[in-house]
C-alpha cells in the first residue's frame, strides 16, 4: 500500500510500487482525465503536478509519489487554473482534445511560476506537450489571455 | 466538383466487402436508442428527438475527432428547428444504414464530407420537426400555422407561446410533412455565427470520454505482441513465464499476435516481456524503403489510366522542348495521440464494441467476422476520437479486440496499443513518384503531362471501388486540376509495394499538390514569369480561385523576389469544393530555413461554424508541416524503423510559425474543410525555399532534399 495526497485527499493505493502513476490513476482509481500518449515522456499528455511541479506520469513509478501531493486535471483548482480553463474556453483551443489535459496542466504550472510569460517562455514551457491536431497557436493565445485576466483581477 | 465524383464513389463503395456487408443490416442499434431515461415524444426522423422536458437531441451520424462535427451538425439542425444550438444534446449514432454518408457510400467520417453530406438532410430534418411542432401549436390555438413563428424552442402566435416540450407529444401525431421550406442564407440565425464548441469545455477539463477511457463493469485489459515485420504471423509461442504474473487471466493467440489479458493494463503489458514468440515473418521481411521506391520506378513506364485530359498533350510535347521533373513523397504514420484501442464484450447477447472509430459499419463487419456472428448481433458504440486523420477508417484493432474478448466470453476486454505498436503497425500514407513534363509559351503552359505512381489504399479497403485502373482517392488533386491548359494529360499508375497503405489526412491531394504546384513554379521560372501572375493568368475560368490567390498574396505582402531576406512561395488548389491559396514566408539560408509565416485565404462557400473552419485550417497547416519538413516512415527488412515521437517526429510548438487564415464570406453551398489546410503546405514552402535559396527540392520530406529547417 502506498499513501499519497491525491487532489487534496489522502488515500492508499494497493498496486505494485513500480506501476506508473498514469495507470494507477486510470485503472486503479478510474480517473481517466490524464492521458496515455507515448509511455516515454515524449508527448506529455500524461502531465500531472507532484508537489506543484509538472511531472510526467507515464514513467513515474507509484513509489515515487509516496507521501507527495499529486494533482490531476480532475483536481486542479484555484485562480490560475480557473483563468487557464476560462481562456481555453474563450479562445476555443481544443480540437480532438486528447492532449488538452496535459496542455492545461503545463500551462497552469507555467503561469503559477511566471505570471507574465513571453512567447519564448511559453515555447520553453510548452514544447514538451505535443498536439497532433495543431492547436499550438491557440494555446499560446490562451496562455497570454489567462495571464492578462490574472493581472487584471489583482 | 468533389461532390460529383463523391457520388460516383458511393456507387463503387457499395460493391466493397465491408460496405455491402454493413449496408444490408436493417436494425437500428448502437447508442442511439435508450440513451435517455424518458422516451422521446417527437421522433420524426433518424436524427432528432424532442422530449416532453423540452430537451432536443441530435443523433449524430458522424464521429467527433476534433473537426467540430458535433457542433457543426447541431448548428444545421438548430437553424431550422429554431432552438439554441447550445441546448442540443449529442448522442452518437451506432452503425445503421440510415446514417450512411451519401458522399462516401458508407457510414464513414472522412473525405471532408460531413457538413456537405448533412447540409440538406439535417436542415430538412430540423424543418420537418419544426413544421410538426408548429402544426400542433396551431391546432391547439385553432389558428393558422402560417401565422405562427418559432423562437428559441417555442412556438409563438401573437402574445401566446408554447414550449416545444409541451407540444412534443401532440406534434408526434401531426402528419410528417413531405416537403418543407428551408431558410434562405440571408435569414440564417445560427449558421455562420459565433458559437463555442459543444465539446470544448469538457475537453479543457479532462471530462471527455475517448475510446480509451470507456469503462464497463468487470472490465479487464489486454496488451498485444505483434510481429515486428508488417503482415507477419505467430508461428509458435511459449507463455510459461507470463502466467507467473499475478493478475494475468489468459494468453490468447489471435494469429497476427499474442495477447495477454490481465486485471490491469500495466500487468498485461509488463507480462508481455515474458512471452517467447516465434514469428512467421511473411513476404514483407525482404522489403526495405529503397525496394519500395524501386518498385514505383519500375512501374513508371506503364501508361496507367487517365484521370483528366484536354487537347493532345503527347503531340504538343513532341512539338516543343519539354521541361521534365520527377517528384517523390515519403510514407507517413498517422500518429494519433490516442493510440489505437478498443473495448469489446462477447456475450450470449452478441458483441458490444466501444471504440474510437471513423467507420462504425466497418467496425461492425470486422467485429462480426472476428466473433463468428452475423453483423446484426454486433452493437457499435462509437466514442470521442483522440485524433483520426484517416487512421480510424481502418478497423484492424477492433477485429483484434473482439478476437481477444472472444476468448473470455462475458468479460469486457480493453485492448490498448503502445505508441510503438501504433507507429510500427499503422497503414502508412502511400509512397509516391510523379513524372511531369510540360512546355511553356507566351507566358503560359501549353502542354502539361503528369503521372502519379503509387500503391492504392482503396484496392485494399474497398477493392470493388477501383474501376478501370482508377482509384478515386489517387485521382484527387488531378481531376480537380484548376489551370486552363490547352493540352493536358493527368494519369495514375497503381503499383503495390508490399506494405499496406492507408488514408492520411488529405490523401492524394497532398501528393499531387506537392508535385503539381512545385512544378508549376518551375514552369513559371522557365517562362520568366512571377509565379503569382503566372497562375492567375491560367485561372481565368475560375474567379473564386483567382480571388483567394490574390487575397493571400495581398495579406502576405507577397513578393516574387525576396525582400529584406524574406522569400515567399505560393501554392493554390481547389479541393473538397473549397478554394485554397497559401503563401509561405521563409528567411535564413539553406542550412537553416526559418518558417516565418503561413498565410491562407480560402473560399469554402458558406462556413457553417466559421471559427472552427479557421481552426481546421490552422490544424491542417500543422498536418501539412508533418508532410513537408522532416517526418517520415522508413522500412528495413519489413520493419518500420520509427517507433515513438523521438523517431517519428511531429511538430512542437516552437516549430510552428504563425498561421493567418482569411475566410471569404460566401453564399455558395459549403465545401469540405477538415483536410483542406494540409496539401498546400509542402509546395508553398518548397517554392519559398526556391525563392530564398535557388534550390529546387523535389522530394518529401524537404529535409531529405538537402536543406535544413531552423
Average per-residue pLDDT of chain B, rounded, comes to 94
> Helical segment tally of chain A?
5
Output the radius of gyration of chain A.
15 Å
The SSE order of chain A reads EEHEEEHHHH
Number of strands of chain B: 26
Number of strands of chain A: 5
Arithmetic mean of pLDDT of chain A: 98
Structural class call of chain B reads alpha+beta
CATH superfamily of the largest domain in chain A: [2Fe-2S]-binding domain
Main sheet of chain A? 5 strands, mixed
Q: What structural class is derived from the secondary structure elements of chain A? A: alpha+beta
| Strand residue content of chain B | 15-25%
Largest sheet: spatial strand order of chain B: 9-10-7-17-14-15-16
In percent, how helical is the residue content of chain A? 25-40%
The 3D shape of chain A can be described as globular
Number of domains of chain A: 2
- Per DSSP, what share of the residues of chain A sits in E-state strands of 2 or more residues? 5-15%
Give the strand order, joined by hyphens, for the main sheet of chain A.
2-1-5-3-4
Estimate nothing, just give the exact number of structural domains of chain B.
3
Rg from alpha-carbon coordinates of chain B: 27 Å
Proportion of helical residues of chain B: 25-40%
Would you mind describing this structure in some detail?
The complex is a heterodimer of chains A (154) and B (710). Chain A is α+β, with helices and mostly antiparallel strands. Chain A folds into 2 domains: 2-71, Beta-grasp domain (Ubiquitin-like (UB roll)); 79-152, DNA polymerase, domain 1 (Orthogonal Bundle). Chain A is built from 5 helices and 5 strands. A 5-stranded mixed beta sheet of chain A has the order 2-1-5-3-4, with helices on both faces. The longest helix of chain A has 17 residues, at 136-152. In chain A, 57% of the residues are buried. The mean pLDDT of chain A is 98. By secondary structure, chain B is α+β, with helices and mostly antiparallel strands. Chain B has 3 domains: 2-203, Aldehyde oxidase/xanthine dehydrogenase, molybdopterin binding domain (Aldehyde Oxidoreductase, domain 4, 2-Layer Sandwich), CATH 3.30.365; 211-282 and 340-416, Aldehyde Oxidoreductase, domain 4 (2-Layer Sandwich), CATH 3.30.365.10; 290-331 and 428-705, Aldehyde Oxidoreductase, domain 4 (2-Layer Sandwich). Chain B contains 18 helices and 26 strands. In chain B, the strands form 7 sheets. In chain B, strands 9-10-7-17-14-15-16 form a 7-stranded mixed beta sheet. The chains are: A alpha+beta (154), B alpha+beta (710). Chains A and B meet through helix 1, helix 2, helix 3, helix 4 and helix 5 of A and helix 6 and helix 17 of B.
Amino acid at each position: 500500500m502506498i499513501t499519497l495526497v491525491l487532489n487534496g485527499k489522502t488515500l492508499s493505493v494497493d498496486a505494485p510500487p513500480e506501476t506508473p502513476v498514469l495507470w494507477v490513476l486510470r485503472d486503479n482509481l478510474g480517473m481517466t482525465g490524464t492521458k496515455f500518449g507515448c509511455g516515454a515522456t515524449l508527448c506529455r499528455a500524461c502531465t500531472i503536478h507532484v508537489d506543484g511541479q509538472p511531472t510526467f506520469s507515464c514513467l513515474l513509478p507509484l513509489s515515487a509519489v509516496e507521501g507527495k501531493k499529486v494533482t490531476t486535471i480532475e483536481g486542479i483548482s484555484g485562480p490560475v487554473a480557473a483563468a487557464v480553463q476560462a481562456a481555453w474556453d474563450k479562445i476555443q483551443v481544443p480540437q480532438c482534445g486528447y492532449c488538452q489535459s496535459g496542455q492545461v496542466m503545463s500551462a497552469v504550472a507555467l503561469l503559477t511560476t511566471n505570471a507574465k510569460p513571453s512567447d519564448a517562455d511559453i515555447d520553453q514551457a510548452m514544447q514538451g506537450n505535443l498536439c497532433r491536431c495543431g492547436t499550438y497557436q491557440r494555446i499560446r493565445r490562451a496562455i497570454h489571455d489567462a495571464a492578462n485576466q490574472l493581472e487584471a483581477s489583482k | 466538383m468533389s461532390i460529383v465524383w463523391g457520388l460516383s464513389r458511393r456507387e463503387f463503395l457499395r460493391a466493397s466487402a465491408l460496405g455491402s456487408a454493413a449496408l444490408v443490416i436493417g436494425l437500428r442499434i448502437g447508442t442511439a436508442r435508450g440513451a435517455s431515461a424518458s422516451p422521446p415524444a417527437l421522433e420524426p426522423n433518424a436524427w432528432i428527438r424532442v422530449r416532453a422536458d423540452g430537451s432536443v437531441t441530435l443523433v449524430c451520424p458522424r464521429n467527433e475527432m476534433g473537426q467540430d462535427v458535433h457542433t457543426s451538425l447541431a448548428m444545421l439542425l438548430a437553424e431550422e428547428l429554431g432552438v439554441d444550438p447550445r441546448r442540443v444534446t449529442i448522442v452518437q449514432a451506432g452503425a445503421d444504414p440510415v446514417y450512411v454518408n451519401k458522399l462516401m457510400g458508407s457510414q464513414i467520417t472522412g473525405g471532408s464530407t460531413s457538413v456537405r453530406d448533412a447540409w440538406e438532410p439535417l436542415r430538412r430534418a430540423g424543418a420537418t420537426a419544426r413544421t410538426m411542432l408548429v402544426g400542433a401549436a396551431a391546432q391547439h390555438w385553432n389558428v393558422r400555422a402560417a401565422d405562427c413563428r418559432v423562437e428559441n424552442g417555442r412556438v409563438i402566435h401573437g402574445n401566446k407561446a408554447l414550449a416545444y416540450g409541451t407540444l412534443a407529444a401532440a406534434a408526434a401525431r401531426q402528419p410528417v410533412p413531405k416537403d418543407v421550406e428551408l431558410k434562405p442564407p440571408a435569414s440564417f440565425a445560427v449558421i455562420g455565427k459565433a458559437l463555442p464548441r459543444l465539446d470544448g469545455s469538457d475537453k479543457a477539463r479532462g471530462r471527455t470520454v475517448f475510446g480509451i477511457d470507456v469503462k464497463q463493469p468487470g472490465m479487464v485489459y489486454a496488451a498485444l505482441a505483434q510481429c515486428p515485420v508488417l503482415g507477419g504471423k505467430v508461428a509458435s509461442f511459449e507463455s510459461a513465464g507470463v502466467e507467473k504474473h499475478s493478475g494475468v487471466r489468459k494468453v490468447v493467440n489471435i494469429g497476427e499476435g499474442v495477447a495477454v489479458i490481465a486485471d490491469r493494463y500495466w500487468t498485461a503489458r509488463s507480462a508481455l516481456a515474458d512471452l517467447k514468440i516465434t514469428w512467421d515473418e511473411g513476404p514483407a521481411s525482404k522489403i526495405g524503403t529503397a525496394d519500395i521506391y524501386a518498385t514505383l520506378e519500375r512501374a513508371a513506364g506503364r501508361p496507367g489510366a487517365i484521370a483528366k485530359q484536354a487537347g493532345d498533350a503527347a503531340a504538343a510535347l513532341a512539338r516543343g522542348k519539354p521541361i521534365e521533373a520527377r517528384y517523390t513523397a515519403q510514407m507517413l504514420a498517422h500518429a494519433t495521440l490516442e493510440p489505437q484501442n478498443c473495448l469489446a464484450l462477447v456475450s450470449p447477447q452478441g458483441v458490444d464494441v466501444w471504440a474510437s472509430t471513423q467507420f462504425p459499419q466497418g467496425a461492425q463487419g470486422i467485429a462480426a467476422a472476428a466473433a463468428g456472428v452475423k453483423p446484426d448481433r454486433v452493437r457499435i458504440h462509437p466514442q470521442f476520437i483522440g485524433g483520426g486523420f484517416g487512421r480510424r477508417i481502418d478497423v484492424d484493432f477492433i477485429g483484434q479486440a473482439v478476437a481477444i474478448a472472444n476468448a473470455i466470453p462475458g468479460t469486457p476486454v480493453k485492448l490498448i496499443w503502445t505508441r510503438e505498436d501504433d507507429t510500427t503497425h499503422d497503414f502508412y500514407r502511400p509512397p509516391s513518384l510523379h513524372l511531369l513534363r510540360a512546355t511553356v509559351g507566351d507566358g503560359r503552359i501549353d502542354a502539361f503531362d503528369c503521372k502519379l505512381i503509387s500503391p492504392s489504399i482503396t484496392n485494399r479497403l474497398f477493392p470493388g471501388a477501383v474501376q478501370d485502373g482508377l482509384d478515386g482517392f489517387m485521382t484527387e488533386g488531378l481531376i480537380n486540376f484548376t489551370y486552363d491548359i490547352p493540352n493536358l494529360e493527368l494519369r495514375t499508375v497503381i503499383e503495390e509495394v508490399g506494405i499496406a497503405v492507408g488514408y492520411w489526412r488529405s490523401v492524394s491531394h497532398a501528393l499531387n499538390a506537392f508535385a503539381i504546384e512545385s512544378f508549376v513554379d518551375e514552369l513559371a521560372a522557365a517562362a520568366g514569369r512571377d509565379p503569382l501572375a503566372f497562375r492567375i493568368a491560367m485561372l481565368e475560368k475560375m474567379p473564386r480561385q483567382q480571388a483567394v490567390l490574390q487575397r493571400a498574396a495581398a495579406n502576405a505582402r507577397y513578393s516574387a523576389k525576396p525582400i529584406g531576406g524574406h522569400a515567399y512561395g505560393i501554392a493554390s488548389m481547389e479541393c473538397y469544393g473549397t478554394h485554397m491559396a497559401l503563401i509561405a514566408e521563409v528567411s535564413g539560408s539553406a542550412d537553416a530555413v526559418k518558417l516565418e509565416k503561413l498565410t491562407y485565404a480560402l473560399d469554402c462557400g458558406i462556413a457553417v461554424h466559421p471559427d472552427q473552419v479557421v481552426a481546421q485550417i490552422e490544424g491542417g497547416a500543422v498536418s501539412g508541416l508533418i508532410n513537408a519538413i522532416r517526418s517520415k516512415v522508413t522500412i528495413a527488412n519489413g520493419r518500420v524503423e520509427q517507433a515513438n515521437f523521438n523517431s517519428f517526429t511531429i511538430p512542437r510548438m516552437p516549430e510552428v510559425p504563425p498561421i493567418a487564415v482569411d475566410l471569404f464570406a460566401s453564399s455558395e453551398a459549403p465545401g469540405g474543410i477538415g483536410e483542406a489546410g494540409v496539401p498546400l503546405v509542402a509546395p508553398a514552402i518548397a517554392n519559398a525555399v526556391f525563392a530564398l535559396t535557388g534550390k529546387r527540392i523535389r522530394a518529401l520530406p524537404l529535409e531529405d532534399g538537402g536543406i535544413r529547417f531552423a
